Predict the structure.
Amino acid sequence: MTLLESWTPGEHSFGGITHPTYRKGNGPAVIVIHEIPGLTPAVIGFGEEVVAAGFTVVMPSLFGTPEAPMNVLNAAKQVGRVCVSREFTTLATGVTTPVAGWLRSLARELHDELGGPGVGAIGMCFTGGFALAMMVDTSVVAPVLAQPSAPFAVTPGRARDLNLSPSDLAVVKERAAAGCQVLGLRFTKDPAVGTRFRTLERELGDAFIKVEFGGMGHSTVTEQRQQEGVDRVLAFFEEKLR
């Protein structure tokens, strides 16, 4: 039995772009956006935990081969892919990743179908900030940023950038001021996150809830899974989506 055998395959199209999706569960909707190199066994396992907590989970496959393991070779291949794709921004500052429009469309579709207060979303690593960009759409009411790492933190300016255009940042700040909270998770010595948590604290104030773990780990809910982090994410979805 494959890891995705019990998930329902589908696809979502927006703006001339189509990506496969995998869906499972019942209850309010949560979009789980995989990290590099793709829908790894650990990401799928996390998705299963969200399903078990009573949510409808949709996992898009934006790049990579579903179920392929996390390793250096697979990660290197997908870094190369995202660097040349027009759907993603890896180094530019002050811009919103183009794939955010596709993800917002997916969130709207799920909210229209399932109703309720809105949709939850979690991005991880390279996609961590995507959940923040999705917050521009009012259908997204529970955004989670797990070790947000784009744009790549190779300069101080990129290390603090939120992967948002000024206009999208203004909307995010407005929604935060109106009560929409943002949950962020990271290891305190993870260089990939850069100084984005300081930026989030400055821009969002008390609406930004940070969960931090000591050390040099990276993937807070998957490869270097922290049970406290998983519990906080599930509690956040429970509070905001029911």
Q: What stands out?
A: The radius of gyration is 16 Å. Residues 8-241 form a domain with the Rossmann fold fold (CATH 3.40.50.1820). The helical segments are 41-52, 72-84, 99-114, 130-134, 156-160, 166-177, 196-204, 227-241.
